[in-house]
Design goal:
The chain is an alpha/beta fold. It has a 6-stranded mixed β-sheet with strand order 2-1-3-10-4-11. A 5-stranded mixed β-sheet has the order 7-6-8-5-9, sandwiched between helices. Strand 6, helix 5 and strand 7 form a beta-alpha-beta unit. Helix 5 crosses helix 11.
């Protein structure tokens, strides 16, 4: 009888301890989960943007702190923030060809959408303006291109190919300081805002064509895109970022938004030692329009990007690949 009572007492004690153990374990697990959730919500998104027209695509967020950590960096280094074993950027804006080449498999980043649609212009010292109707006038001419091996040069090559002029126009690389002054050049291909800055600085230099118009279509072509880490796509932070992208174009062109405010916002986030592309003097509303800043979500620009990359592959020395379906958010 005593033995039976002892066993019952032991069993009750054991059961109580077991229940207490499970309660304690559950409380600890829930506490850890809450802590992780809290940290993931409060940890700032790291957003990397190249200086120039792409920086305008987030100017609204740079001016009005939305809780993310923004860094405006040298365009030549932008790919370093989305590559390697532990990429630094949670969100990154970069040229569409680089995005597809480096991230097009969709395994680490997904495309949120296109943020700029072409900001390249022909400049000349009094030559005939080039339009889709008279593009044959480029036959026998020499065109100097800033960044010949990248999107500016590739886009021009694509335009010339479509016009049946691939071997009839001489393309040469030029540096920004050579624009408008280098001998033997009939036309220069220059991005905004550098194009307007040069035209304002050199009395004889003028706008002589738009690569967006020559490419065809009202929307231009996808030039810079925004990507986000795959695991962050459905978070409120990324959704808020996309909301900001959608509101940005209207904010930029609003008369109450001054050039000083935009430039100050960009400069406040510039990497150390980087000279800004924009100044309050060269950032007019027309320059902003010329930068073609307008957010188009991935679902709406997917086909345009696939077609544009396929065309670039035909004129590029190295292929950028083909974006997978998984790449598009």
């Amino acid at each position: 009888h005593i033995s039976s009572m002892w066993i019952k007492s032991f069993n009750m004690t054991f059961i109580k301890k077991l229940i207490l153990f499970f309660i304690t374990a559950t409380v600890i697990t829930l506490s850890l989960a809450a802590a992780v959730s809290c940290n993931s919500q409060t940890e700032k998104l790291k957003v990397y943007v190249p200086d120039g027209a792409p920086a305008l695509s987030v100017a609204n967020m740079l001016a009005n702190d939305d809780g993310a950590e923004y860094r405006v960096v040298d365009a030549q280094t932008i790919q370093t923030f989305v590559t390697g074993n532990s990429p630094q950027a949670d969100i990154c804006i970069l040229p569409v060809n680089l995005a597809v080449k480096l991230l097009g498999d969709g395994k680490t980043y997904k495309l949120l959408g296109t943020v700029t649609h072409g900001n390249l212009f022909l400049l000349s010292n009094g030559k005939t303006s080039i339009t889709p109707d008279n593009i044959a006038d480029l036959t026998g001419k020499t065109v100097g291109v800033v960044n010949l091996a990248q999107i500016p040069g590739l886009t021009l090559k694509l335009i010339l190919k479509n016009a049946g002029l691939p071997d009839k126009v001489t393309l040469v690389p030029v540096t920004a300081p050579e624009v408008g002054v280098k001998d033997g050049i009939d036309y220069f291909v220059v991005p905004e805002p550098a194009a307007s800055t040069k035209v304002n600085a050199l009395e004889t230099l003028e706008f002589s064509g738009s690569l967006q118009e020559l490419y065809g279509g009202e929307a231009g072509y996808p030039q810079a895109v925004a990507v986000a880490k795959k695991e962050l796509i459905d978070t409120d932070a990324v959704k808020n970022f996309v909301k900001g992208l959608k509101e940005n174009a209207e904010w930029l062109l609003n008369e109450s938004t001054s050039a000083e405010e935009i430039v100050s916002a960009v400069q406040a986030h510039l990497s150390d030692g980087l000279s800004p592309t924009f100044s309050a003097k060269n950032l007019s509303k027309q320059v902003i329009v010329n930068c073609s800043v307008n957010f188009v979500p991935a679902t709406d620009c997917k086909q345009d990007i696939i077609e544009f990359i396929a065309k670039l592959n035909c004129v590029s020395d190295t292929s950028f690949g083909t974006p997978s379906n998984d790449f598009f958010a």
